Amino acid sequence: MALERTLSIVKPDGVQKNLIGEVYRRFEQAGLKIVAARMMHLSLAQAEGFYAVHRERPFFKDLTKYMSSGPVIVQVLEGENAVAKNRELMGATDPKKADKGTIRGDLAASIEENVAHGSDSAENAKIEIAYFFAAADICPRTR
Ligand code: GDP
């Protein structure tokens, strides 16, 4: 198994509903370590840049408007198979299809307002981490 890092965001609905602690509890209980974190209110341009790969999707405009609608908290998670583990903890994009016990299955309101973002591959994780954090912002956890 590989020690990996992944980019996670508690989205505006998650912050608004006071779910930061609940989401962090799930990361920590699953053995993922938070090695960088930052609260920010994304501009529309920042949200568009982050989701540039979805530019052609029909929901791009709604998604970027929603992601810039309120504060988010962005974090880097580190652990064995962190990318897949975080995706497992989040569950399916659509909360109606997400398993019970997952972040989206338990806490999300809709396919758009689905509480959390997580990188979908190790390659994208590197790109997404670099979008928000400089190398010096990340604090490797040795114990
Ligand atoms: P993820 O990797 O599970 O987050 O899913 P995607 O990469 O496919 O989509 C990115 C984000 O766009 C999702 O987490 C949702 O917030 C939003 N999204 C996905 N599908 C839809 C949709 O059909 N309609 C709307 N309004 N938003 C969507």
UniProtKB/TrEMBL annotation:
Entry's EC annotation: 2.7.4.6
UniProt KW Secreted keyword: no
Enzyme class, UniProt record, top EC level: transferase
Cofactor: Mg(2+)
Active site: H117
InterPro entries: NDK-like_dom, NDK-like_dom_sf, Nucleoside_diP_kinase
Domain Nucleoside diphosphate kinase-like: 3-140
A GO cellular-component term linked to this record: cytoplasm
Catalysis: reaction(s): a 2'-deoxyribonucleoside 5'-diphosphate + ATP = a 2'-deoxyribonucleoside 5'-triphosphate + ADP; a ribonucleoside 5'-diphosphate + ATP = a ribonucleoside 5'-triphosphate + ADP
Domain of life, per lineage: Bacteria
Coiled-coil blocks: none
GO process terms (BP): CTP biosynthetic process; GTP biosynthetic process; UTP biosynthetic process
UniProt keyword annotations, A-Z: ATP-binding, Cytoplasm, Kinase, Magnesium, Metal-binding, Nucleotide metabolism, Nucleotide-binding, Phosphoprotein, Transferase
Protein residues bound to ATP: K11, F59, R87, T93, R104, N114
Cross-referenced Pfam families: NDK
SMART domains membership: NDK
Compartment annotation: Cytoplasm
Molecular function terms from GO: ATP binding; metal ion binding; nucleoside diphosphate kinase activity
Function: Major role in the synthesis of nucleoside triphosphates other than ATP. The ATP gamma phosphate is transferred to the NDP beta phosphate via a ping-pong mechanism, using a phosphorylated active-site intermediate.
Family affiliation: Belongs to the NDK family.
Subunit structure: Homotetramer.
Stated name of the protein: Nucleoside diphosphate kinase
Organism the protein comes from: Povalibacter uvarum
Phylogenetic classification of the source organism: Bacteria, Pseudomonadati, Pseudomonadota, Gammaproteobacteria, Steroidobacterales
UniProt gene name: ndk
